[in-house]
Amino acid sequence: MIAGTSLHPLPDSQRVVITGIGLTAPNGNDYASFRESLLEGRSGVQPYEIRYFGKTLAGVCNFDALRHQSRKDVRRGTRAGSVGIYCAQEAVKNSGIDWDNADRSRVGVYIGVTEHGNVETENEIYQIKGYDYDTSVWSHHHNPRTVANNPAGEVALNMGITGPHYTIGAACAAGNAGLIQGAQMLRLGDCDLALAGGVSESIHTFGIFASFRSQGALASHDDPARASRPFDQARNGIVVAEGGCVYVLERLSDAKARRAKIYGELAGYAMNTDATDFVLPNPERQAECVELALRRAGLAPEQIDIVSTHATGTHSGDEQECTALRRVFGKSQRTYFNNAKSFIGHAMGAAGALELAGNLPAFEDGVCHATINVEQLDPKCELPGLVANEPRNIGRPEYILNNSFGMLGINSVVIIRRFS
């Protein structure tokens, strides 16, 4: 049992709620502007060029890193660190916490990533090429930039946090994994406040673009805004994106004590592994992950109002996820399905956290944002409640289920409940 049911309620000290949100996406640098872009159909995909690879498309963020960092800190740190710092600082500000008087030894930082260190390594090898590969000019910042705990560690350094911090490597399931880890640490009493979510600096490494192209999985289109097209018959791959989203998580008892605004309550979650292939998804395992999250939340499938799909725009991945969703939700017209990658591309380690943030406002406005670019629905991706091209008013949603799946077969599902 995660959040409890009416028959077996959890005490407020074990219920975890979202009280702050900070984000940067290719089409918005805060919670409100991101949601506005999703409702108005604004894509954040644009032409992009990167060393060695050349011209392509990407979801590019334009947040102001210097809002919370000095120029020196930006130079010595990483893009993922800057994304994490921006999002964490904005989340704390959004939460209304009295940060100056907070006990920072009781704050934990749990940031999910797909990969980290490739950008810095590629850049430094390129630089020493100009010195005939003389490693005596190799940057002394290399090690702290590339250690696995870097993004969370940069957040902790920037914000003076002395509680636990670590980075969760969970491929493209990492945004959800960061949330899950934060909730678990709150329940265990390891912290009193968790900064949890995911970040991505992926567009700054040519290796990711080259690998997806060699795999035949990199999207292309004459119109950048139409390149990311999950579920569409003509979809042809992934648009790589950067971004980040960090949540302030608190125990309900603490949030009530300070009369915090509550965006939603963590009702259930699950993670599992396909154990079948490096990159090809397994719909049976994905369905089992969704079903486990539902069981832990004490919910039936038809109680879910919105499912935020993982679908990346690849033929196999989208088809397999839809197979899993049909297995769980059947032909029910009660549940609506949407996808934020159609707007921003695939933000890798940040994807799950960002996509959840795109749907949370539905608790207030009753609108399910659309999946754009569905010009001809692939019959293999048919879902009865798919919201395509135009947002839909769905009344008063109570539950949002957020899918995030990744390479090496890692699956994660988070369910958020309207708080009342």
Overview of the molecule:
By secondary structure, the protein is of the alpha/beta class. It has two domains: 15-257, 3-Layer(aba) Sandwich (Peroxisomal Thiolase, Chain A, domain 1); 268-417, Thiolase/Chalcone synthase (Peroxisomal Thiolase, Chain A, domain 1, 3-Layer(aba) Sandwich). It is built from 14 helices and 14 strands. The chain has helices at 31-40, 71-76, 79-95, 118-129, 142-146, 150-159, 174-188, 206-214, 252-257, 283-297, 315-329, 341-344, 351-359, 362-365, and strands at 16-24, 45-50, 54-59, 107-113, 165-169, 193-200, 243-251, 264-273, 306-308, 336-338, 367-368, 392-393, 399-406, 410-417. The strands form three sheets. A ten-stranded mixed beta sheet has the order 5-4-6-7-1-8-14-13-9-10, sandwiched between helices. A two-stranded antiparallel ribbon has the order 2-3. Strand 9 (306-308), helix 11 and strand 10 form a beta-alpha-beta unit. Helix 3 (79-95) crosses helix 6 (150-159) and helix 7 (174-188) crosses helix 13 (351-359). The longest helix is centred in the first third of the chain and has 17 residues, at 79-95. The two termini are 19 Å apart.
